[in-house]
Amino acid sequence: MHLSILYRGPLISCNYGCEYCPFAKRQQTAAELAVDRQALERFSEWIADHPEHDFSVLVTPWGEALIHNWYQEQLSQLSHLANVRKVAIQTNLSCKLDWIDQANPDSLALWATFHPDWSDQAQFLAKCQTLMAHNIQFSVGVVGFAQYREAITQLRQALPNSVYLWINAVKRELPNLAESDRAFFSTIDPHYELNTQHYPSLGKSCRAGRSVFSVDGDGTMRRCHFIKAPIGNIYEPNFEQALKGLPCSNETCHCHIGYVHMDELELELLFGERILERIPLAYHHEAIKLKPTVLQQP
User: Fold this and answer.
1) I need a labelling partner for 160 at 20 to 30 A (CA). Which of 50, 71, 132, 135 fits?
2) What DSSP line would sit under 52-107, residue for residue?
3) Which domains are delineated in the chain?
């Protein structure tokens, strides 16, 4: 059986201070981080101990995970397991990238978010070049605030066309967003409008809870991040019995990592096996270089 897991451990801290994020510049104690490490290592061991299933894993931390070496180590290890098709993580790409030398480029993937107020664009692009040189598949995203237009334009000009640059729509700002800004975002991200919707989901069929599910640090299983009722625990025998094809119990679904699994949207046709790392099938990059404009960045 192929299972897709969205893993979110106890990590709730970040090294960036984005004003729209509740975890901005939040710190955790050494003891709290040790609990997070133990949870991730236990999860990684559990994956290895279930060769009867194929897994795709997306790590969706409340904060920035890759600045911690245990995430680098465990993602590298998971990428080499025979029963792991894909292991991906959301990141601001502020970490060092020497660890990817030990990872399997055929199964490791990143979706990296560029934060104009906190990231140096030249450094961010240099890290993108490193990923491409190592054949690591990745997408790049920017939060869709109008004030980021110039930074987004520069980013798109510097990145190869084969790298998908997505715009994460700020739903609460959409009523106040100028049509020209919305049109601009669509020129950058041809799938931007997909992310602007609150999709009616109540009673609808979804892979979440059937072949896709979320896992907390203690192993608690939920249909998805947005339905809080537990359905089981991966560390209990016969955890698979918790997986059932039930209709969605939420009125709407508006986050990419949720609605992308709704059956009626058929977004698996758009993303294929790259659905977790948010890379449409039309985008694929090998060891290519950034456009010359990157060298002109300050």
Assistant:
1) 71
2) TSEEEEEE--SS--TTSHHHHHHHHHHHT-TTEEEEEEEE-S-S--GGGGGS-TTT
3) 2-296 (3.20.20)
